[in-house]
Amino acid sequence: MELLKSHRSIRKYSNREIPAAILTDILECGIRSSNTGNMQLYSIVVTRQLEKKRELAPLHFNQAMVTSAPVVLTICFDVNRFNVWCRLNNTFTDLNNLLWLLNGVIDSSILVQNICIAAESKGLGICYLGTTLYNAPEIIETLKLPSGVIPINTLTIGYPEVIPDLTDRLPLDAILHHEAYNNYTDAQIIDYYKAKEELESSKQFVFENQKQNLAQVYAEVRYKSEDNIFFSDKLRKLLEEQGFL
Predict the structure, then answer these.
(1) What CATH number has the domain bearing residue 86?
(2) Is 226 inside a domain boundary?
(3) For the chain, which residues score pLDDT lower than 70?
(4) N or C: more exposed end of the chain, with fewer CB within 10 A?
(5) 216 vs 21, 68, 130, 211, CA distance in Å?
(6) Nearest CA to 142 among 151, 155, 130, 131?
(7) Strand partners, 45
(8) Angstrom distance (rounded) from CA 243 to CA 1
């Protein structure tokens, strides 16, 4: 419980390598995760070579931990393996559709979280890279992923060089609904976000971006509409080409 409550994203890693046996153990924990129909519609690409990390780095907006972490994991939704198995056994079912894309994304995400917990239990640090879907077509090319294999999540893993403070979270009351969804009043929203907005780091964030409040930073700088639409269109084209939409 303490491990889960003390999670931090680690962005600075030491030069210490991860022993192969420990990494294997962590990945074995990952594949014990729950998944739809025990079909395991995912694959993991392990990147250790610096040259390959340098190829991936621009696709993750050149975040430093892509090249500094000893291991980068790209977790992919994968129907390719299952489709080949069916072909070899003279059968077929259509998994290239929205339903199985969502099932695979869910299963891949559960796999990733198991890997994270296992890694942290071994004294390692992890960081999710939320950039994977932004440049999925380019990652597919770099990692030579066949049709039916879509990168969903990327993790950097290594021994922490710097352990940051805990990141803030909304209070549980802001997330929790009993029996049915109880829509928020304006007063509740103001109350739930008050602590986040009053953090010194948040105030600095607002000041640096020359905005009036934290919501404007998120909506107008970090996740502005034109970027959202651009990357959504890019991803939609990929999924349409592969028959998932």
Answers:
(1) 3.40.109.10
(2) no
(3) none
(4) N
(5) 46, 32, 20, 6
(6) 151
(7) 74
(8) 41
